[in-house]
């Protein structure tokens, strides 16, 4: 078990490196790697705002790259590592790609479909299910998200105040505030169930 845990943590650290790339772009920091025969064959990080693309989630990018590398849409014998519980789109893509094993960092109670809102990864009604491990480097994964959202709130507040000082009559546009609301993830609620 200790060996498996070490391997899982090793690759989750690689997924965290990807998440950090998103962080540096001002994106919600989510990262993913796909491992086949002990080698990373696909990497991805969230670029939704940067690319202005709904599909630019970490997992979708990693799946695309892994499929190119393997030369098949089927990613059998692969393990997908992701820092945050996948959404409905990514969980669906994981099942479509026949990925047999998923390892996740922290859970996403507001949008997750790997056990929180739905459990698309383990539905017996589908012809394929993934074996799921949850909570690998959970603290590191959730702390990166929390840091991101607290910085975003500070920036948001500063920009609001600056806008107020500039145009005391205007209350309309607030793009960063919208982003916080639309981010689908409530960092305060992302603390694991143990209540750490
Ligand atoms: Zn997703």
Task: Please provide a brief summary of the model.
With 196 residues, the chain is α/β, with parallel strands linked by helices. Helix content is 44%, strand content 15%.
Describe the overall structure.
- By secondary structure, this protein is of the alpha/beta class.
- The protein contains 6 helices and 5 strands, in the order αββααβαββαα.
- It has helices spanning 2-24, 48-51, 58-70, 88-96, 138-166, 175-182, and strands spanning 31-36, 39-45, 78-84, 101-106, 131-133.
- Strand 1 (31-36) and strand 2 (39-45) form a beta hairpin.
- It starts with a helix and ends in a 14-residue tail after the last helix.
- Mean pLDDT is 90; it is low at 191-196.
- Binned, the helix content reads 40-55%
Sheet-strand content, in percent, reads 5-15%
H and E string: HEEHHEHEEHH
Q: Can you tell me the residue ranges where pLDDT is under 50 for at least 5 consecutive residues? A: 191-196
Give the count of helical stretches: 6
| End-to-end CA span | 24 Å
Integer-rounded radius of gyration = 18 Å
Mean pLDDT: 90
Q: Ions, cofactors, ligands: which are bound?
A: zinc ion
Count of DSSP strands = 5
Cα shape:
elongated
Q: Largest beta sheet, briefly? A: 5 strands, mixed
Give the structural class. alpha/beta
- Spatially, the strands of the biggest sheet line up as 2-1-3-4-5
């Amino acid at each position: 078990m200790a060996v498996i845990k070490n391997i899982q943590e090793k690759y989750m650290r690689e997924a965290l490196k990807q998440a950090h790339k998103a962080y540096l772009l001002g994106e919600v920091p989510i990262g993913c790697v796909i491992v086949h025969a002990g080698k990373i064959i696909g990497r991805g990080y969230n670029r939704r705002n940067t690319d202005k693309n709904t599909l630019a989630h970490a997992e979708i990018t990693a799946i695309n790259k892994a499929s190119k590398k393997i030369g098949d849409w089927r990613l059998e014998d692969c393990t997908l590592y992701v820092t945050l519980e996948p959404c409905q789109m990514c969980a669906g893509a994981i099942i479509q790609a026949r990925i047999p094993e998923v390892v996740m960092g922290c859970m996403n109670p507001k949008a997750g479909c790997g056990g929180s809102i739905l459990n698309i990864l383990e539905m017996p009604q589908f012809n394929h299910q993934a074996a799921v491990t949850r909570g690998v480097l959970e603290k590191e994964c959730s702390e990166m998200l929390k840091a991101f959202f607290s910085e975003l709130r500070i920036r948001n507040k500063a920009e609001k105040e600056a806008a107020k000082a500039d145009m005391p009559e205007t209350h309309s546009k607030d793009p960063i505030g919208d982003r916080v609301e639309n981010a689908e993830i409530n960092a305060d609620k992302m603390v694991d169930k143990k209540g750490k």
